[in-house]
Design goal:
68 residues, alpha+beta, 4 strands, elongated
Length: 68
């Protein structure tokens, strides 16, 4: 079964032990492991976001980016 082509937020798609949930923009992945342990894939995105924020802060501090 393929992903829905026009999902709405909250739609899910299940493949074996992985549940994908549409958040309105992208699909978040949740893996259900042994003993019902749950692993969320968005932790990687959080690291990327923190890195991006640090980069933007450096641009602001150097006067390259100005936010009103």
């Amino acid at each position: 079964m393929s992903f829905p082509t026009q999902p709405v937020p909250g739609d899910t798609h299940i493949v074996e032990d992985t549940t994908y949930t549409f958040n309105g923009r992208t699909w978040d992945r949740t893996i259900i492991g042994p003993n019902n342990n749950t692993q969320y894939s968005h932790a990687v995105l959080t690291t990327a976001l923190i890195t991006r924020i640090a980069h933007l802060e450096a641009l602001i501090e150097n006067g390259i980016l100005i936010i009103d």
